[in-house]
Amino acid sequence: MARQKLKEILINRDWCKGCGICVHFCPTKVLELDGKEKSTAVRPEDCICCRMCELRCPDLAIEVLIEEDGNE
Amino acid sequence: MSENIRFIQGNEACVEGAIYAGIDFFAGYPITPSTEIAEHLARRLPETGGKFIQMEDEIASMCAIIGASLTGKKVMTATSGPGFSLKQEAIGYACMTEIPCVIANVQRGGPSTGNPTHVSQGDINQARWGTHGDHSIIALTASNHQDVFNMTVDAFNMAETYRTPVVLLFDEVVGHMREKLVIPEEGEVEIVSRLRTSLGKGVDYHPYLPREDGRLPMSDFGGEHKYNVTGLFHDMWGFPSNNPKTVNELLRHLVDKIENNVRSITRYKEHFLEDAEYIMVSYGSSARSAIHLAKNRRAKGEKIGVLELQSIWPFPTEMVREKCANAKAVLVVEMNMGQVTAQVKAAVRKPNRVFLANRIDGKLITPADIKRLLRVIQGRGV
Amino acid sequence: MAVKDYLRERYFPHMWCPGCGHGTILNSLIRAVEELQLHKNEIVMVSGIGCSARISGYVDFHSLHTIHGRALTFATGVKLSQPRLKVLVPMGDGDALAIGGNHFIHAARRNIDITAIVMNNRIYGMTGGQFSPLSGPGVKATTAPFTTIDDNFDVVELATAAGASFVARSTAFHVKETTEILKKAIMHKGFSVVELLSQCPTHYGRKNKEGDAASMLDLQKSGTAKIGSKALEKNPALTPRGIFVDTDKPEYCEEYDKIIAHATKENIS
User: Fold this and answer.
1) How far apart are CA C63 and CA C54, in angstroms?
2) What CA–CA distance (Å, rounded) separates C30 from C52?
3) Is residue B342 part of a domain?
4) How many Cβ atoms are within 10 Å of C157's Cβ, its own excluded?
5) Chain centroid to CA B210: how far?
6) Which of C187, C160, C158, C155 is nearest to C171 (CA)?
7) Domains held by chain B: number
8) Distance (Å, rounded) from C-alpha B40 to C-alpha B11?
C-alpha cells in the first residue's frame, strides 16, 4: 500500500476562529494556537496524515495536502 | 361561443378558474366554507398532471405552495378566517421573497371560530395587514360565479406579473351558492406565464435585481442558476443583508411594485352609475343585494347606482373618488363593521356623506336592509 | 470536484461561534455530497430559523432559508412539485421538534423522499441559550435558571414511531461516521432522519460546565456508543449511535405519480 506523506497543512487564517478542536484532537500534537489564537502547524514532520483536523474543523479552515508515495 | 356551461358552487368556479389559469400545485387543509376548493382540486389536479397535497395544517399548506412555486409551478391554497390567520407569517415570507402564489379566503364570521357556516366579509383588513411589517399585497373579490372564475384567473396572472401573493377574498354565500358558469374557450382569456430569466449558464444571475419596469425574471429551483431565498432583508443575490441602503431599497421596492400599479390592478364594475345621485359601493355577495336594489329603484325612476369593487387591495382610491364625485351620498354595503367604508371615506371629497349599510349577524344583507338606511339618508324617513 | 466547490466561499468566515458543532456538520455534509458526486444543481437545501438554519446560505446549492419550524413543509412543496431534486433539510432541535414538531412527524408519516438532519445542540443558540425539547431534565438555560424539569424527545424513537424509513444518529465528533451515514440517508428513497449531536460551547457548554468545544466533543465520544457494540452492552445508559431504521416503504411522490396515472386514464376513458 502506498504510504502517505504530508505535503502541506493549509490553514485559512481568515476562517479559523481558534476554537482549538484541531489542537486538542491531533494524535501527534502537530498543531498549536499561535499568539493570535489561530491554528498553526508547528510540528508538520510529525503529521501522520489522518486528516481528522481537516474533517473536524468547524470553520472549514484546514486542508491537509498529501503526497502519495508509491515507492514503499 | 363556449359550449362549456356548468351549474356549480362558487368554490368550484374558483377551481375552474385556477385550472384555466394553469394551476400545477395545491396544498390545503380542510376548513369551512372553503373545503370544496380542496375537494375539487384533489380530483381535478391529477387529471391534468398537477399535484394536490393535503397537509397537516394551515401553515404547512401555505409553506408547501411557496416551496412548489419556486420550482416554477403555479400554486394556490384555500382557507377561511382561522386558517387565514395561521397562514399570515408565511404570506409575509412570500411577500418578502417575492414568490408568486394565490390564497383563496372564503370568508366566514369571526373573530376566532366565529360563525363557520355563515357569511361575513370581516377579513378585508386582515388581507391587507394580516402579516407583520410593512408590505403591500393584492386582494381581489367577486360577487358571482363568472367573476369568481375571472378573478381567479386574474389572481394567478397578477401573482406572476408582480411576483407577489394574491388573496382571493370570497365569502360564504358566493362560495356555496350554485349558479351558472360559462367556461371560456382556451385562449379566450389571457394567461400570464412566469417571466423567466434568459440568462444562460455561467452568467451571474441576480434574482432580486428588478428590471427597469420593476419586474424580476425568475429562475426555477433545479435550473441552471443556484441562488438563495431568505425572509431576511437581502441583497440582489438573495443573501441576507442589514445594510441600511439595501433594507431601505428592498422595502420600498416591495411596496412600490404594487402601489405604483394601482391603475393596472384595479378591477371594478359599474351598475347604473352614469347619472347616479346615490351610489352604493359594494363587493362580494353584498353587492348582489345592492345591485338588486338599484335595479328595482331605477325602475321607479330613482337615480341610484352601484360601484362594485373587484379589487380591494391596493385600494382603488382615485377610481372611487372619481366615480363618487357627483354623488349626494355614498352608501358602502358590506358585511363587517365598516372596513371598506373607512377606505371610501378616505377616498372621497366629502367623507361625512359616506354611510355604512351593514349586517354582521351571519345573514346575507338584503335589498330591504339597504333600502331602510337609504331612505334615512335621503331624508325620506324609515 | 473539490470540497470547497460546494461552498459559497464569499460568505466565509461563517457566522457560527468558535467551536460550534454546526460548522463540523456542514463540513461532514459537503464531504458526503462530494463523495456521492451529486450535481450541485440537483440539490435543494431548505432550512428554517436559528443558528442551524444559516447552513443553507453557505452551500452552493439551490437554497431556501424559510421561517421558524416550517422548513419541512416548504421542502415538501419543493420535492412533490419537482421529485427529481435531492432535498436536504437541516434543522436545529427547536426548529425541528418544538415549533416544527408537527411537520416533523407528518413528513415522516408520508415517507416523502427528503433528508432531515437534526443538528441537536440541546439549546436555542440564536436567541441566547433557552432550553429546547431536546435539552432534557437537569439542564441550565436562561429560561431554566433552576434547571429544566421537562423530559426530552428521543429523536430516533420519535422518527421511527412516526414512520421514517431511514433513522440514524451520530455526532459532530464522529465525522467519518457522520459522512457515511449522511451518504446513505441522502441516497435512501423515502424520509430519512439523521440526528447529529452538536455542541454549543457558547450557550450550553458554559452554563452547564461542560467546558470548551473540545471537552464537549470528548463528551460526545465518551457519552455515546455504536449500536451492537460491547460498550453499549456494558453501559446501556450511553446514547446509541448508528443506523436504527433502513427499510423500503412506498415513497410519497412515487405513490402520487400512480394517482396521476390513474386519474389521467380515468379522464380519457
Assistant:
1) 10
2) 15
3) yes
4) 11
5) 24
6) C155
7) 2
8) 9
Asked if B68 is an interface residue toward chain C (Cβ–Cβ < 8 A), one would say yes
Task: Determine the 3-state secondary structure of A51 from DSSP.
Answer: coil
- Encode chain C (269 residues) as per-residue pLDDT tens digits: 688 999 999 999 999 999 999 999 999 999 999 999 999 999 999 999 999 999 999 999 999 999 999 999 999 999 999 999 999 999 999 999 999 999 999 999 999 999 999 999 999 999 999 999 999 999 999 999 999 999 999 999 999 999 999 999 999 999 999 999 999 999 999 999 999 999 999 999 999 999 999 999 999 999 999 999 999 999 999 999 999 999 999 999 999 999 999 999 866 65
Q: Which grid cell sits at C266?
A: 380515468
In this complex, how many residue pairs, one in chain A and one in chain C, have their CB atoms less than 8 Å apart? 71
B/C interface, count of CB pairs below 8 Å? 131
B145: left (phi over 0), alpha (psi -120 to 50) or beta: alpha
Q: Where are the domains of chain C?
A: 3-268
Question: Across-strand partners of A8?
Answer: A65
Give domain C3-268's CATH superfamily: Thiamin diphosphate (ThDP)-binding fold, Pyr/PP domains (3.40.50.970)
Q: What is the CATH number of the domain that holds B93?
A: 3.40.50.970
Closest CA to B63 of C1, C106, C10, C148: C106
d(CA B109, CA C111): 37
Q: Which one of B148, B165, B182 terminates a domain? A: B182
Residues B21, B152: contact at Cβ < 8 Å?
yes
Of A24, A52, A59, the CB nearest to C23: A59
**Residue ranges making up the domain that contains B111:** 5-182
- The two counts, helices (H) then strands (E), for chain A are 2, 4
Can you list the alpha helix ranges (DSSP code H) found in chain B?
Answer: 10-21, 35-47, 58-70, 81-97, 124-129, 145-162, 172-176, 244-259, 262-265, 284-299, 317-323, 339-347, 367-377
Q: Kindly report, residue by residue over B50-93, the tens digit of the pLDDT.
A: 999 999 999 999 999 999 999 999 999 999 999 999 999 999 99
- With respect to residue B349, please indicate whether it lies within any of the assigned structural domains: yes
The last residue of one of the domains, among B145, B162, B182, is B182
ipTM: 0.97
Chain B CA closest to residue C61: B226
Show the domain range for A40. 3-69
Q: Same domain, yes or no, for B178 and B288?
A: no
- CATH number of the domain bearing residue B318: 3.40.50.920
> Does C217 contact A21 at a Cβ distance shorter than 8 Å?
yes
The count of domains in chain A is 1
CATH of the domain at A19: 3.30.70.20
Residues of C in contact with B232 (CB under 8 A): 65
Judge whether C197 and C239 are in contact, CB under 8 Å.
Answer: yes
Residue found under cell 457515511 = C180
Look at residues B95, B91, B69 and name the one whose alpha carbon lies nearest to residue B255: B95
Nearest to C13 among A21, A23, A59 (CB): A59
To probe the interface with B, which of C42, C73, C88 has the most B CB atoms within 10 Å? C73
Q: Which amino acid is at B360?
A: I
Contact B63 C70 (CB under 8 A): yes
